[in-house]
Amino acid sequence: APVTMQTLFSNLPILSSSAENLAHYDSRGIIAADGQFRAVGNVRAKGCETDIFLHRVAVDGLGAAADLHAIPVHPFPDGNILGGFPGEFQVSVTYEFTEDNTLQIYYSGISDKATLANMTNHSYFNLTGEGSGKVLDTYLTIHARDYNPVDEFSIPTGEYAAVEGTPMDFNKAKKIGQEIEADFQQLKYTGGYDHNYVTDNYAKGSRRTVAVAYNETSGITMDVISDCPCVQFYAGNFVIDEKGKNGHVYNKREGFCLETQVEPNAVNVEAFHSPVLEAGEKYQSFTADKFDVRK
């Protein structure tokens, strides 16, 4: 069947979605307002992305003629979700599926007030195909010397920790399941991998390969290319009875995510890459998932 934007994104807002304003975890629900930061409550128990429904806006706005592009523009009002990000945030996400089997995602946005912006995509991947079981035999490489440790609430503590000598090291390709059950406190906190990796060779606006996944059974490879400084690797530890396309139901570790971004909790950690978007400043970000088959 031909690939269309509807076939790529017409399932669930969890299994294939984009998120704004602030991807992943913030320890105190801090927002920017007129150059000042204030607390709006503890959002730890709320989980990950503050707005998981942007992909629904994208799909619903395509129209009958949509093929390989989607360019929705959607205003998120002043004071939107989880207690109130300031400013009306005009968001545009462009999806393009190219002839060389690359899904390209262009994010852009602008706000009329200082706000927070860290947009990402929360699609799950299984390189052996839909409904084919767990992803633990898929090989993964992440080009990152450091990752961000988390606390028991999955909030980054503000540290950069070396991956070398720990189960967090994916600098050389290894199976996702090789050390996922290791006796390592970080993996116990999150039930498996759900951590932000600070990728190598970051330069603002420069695109490079940050991660590569490969499955021997199918031969399929996926290169993740981005201009973002970080990528969150999530091994689907808490997926339970999520319905996907063609009636398949997905459960624990039957899909993985590689979500490009700045560090979670960056608004509270000066050393992290800033998620603050000033009033009138244009937000731009790019990520591509390039697929191929090894012969």
Rg, rounded, reads: 18 Å
Number of strands: 22
Q: Percent of residues in helical segments? A: under 10%
| Average predicted confidence as pLDDT | 81
Per-chain topology:
Blueprint lengths: L4 H5 L8 E2 L10 E4 L2 E4 L14 H7 L8 E2 L2 E4 L12 E9 L4 E10 L3 E2 L3 E2 L17 E4 L3 E3 L12 E2 L11 E2 L9 H6 L3 E5 L9 E7 L5 E7 L3 E5 L7 E2 L5 E2 L6 E5 L14 E2 L4 E12 L2
Antiparallel strand pairs: 1-9, 2-3, 4-6, 5-6, 6-7, 7-22, 8-21, 10-13, 10-15, 11-12, 11-14, 14-17, 15-16, 16-22, 17-20, 18-19
Summed up:
With 295 residues, this protein is mainly beta. It is built from three helices and 22 strands. The longest helix has 7 residues, at 54-60.
Overview of this structure, please?
With 295 residues, the protein is mainly β. Helices cover 6% and strands 33% of the residues. Strands 4, 5, 6, 7, 10, 13, 15, 16 and 22 form a nine-stranded antiparallel sheet that branches. A five-stranded antiparallel sheet has the order 12-11-14-17-20, with no helix packed on it. A two-stranded antiparallel ribbon has the order 1-9. It is globular, with a radius of gyration of 18 Å. The protein starts with a helix and ends with a strand. About 14% of the residues have low confidence.
Features:
295 residues, mainly beta, 9-stranded antiparallel sheet, globular
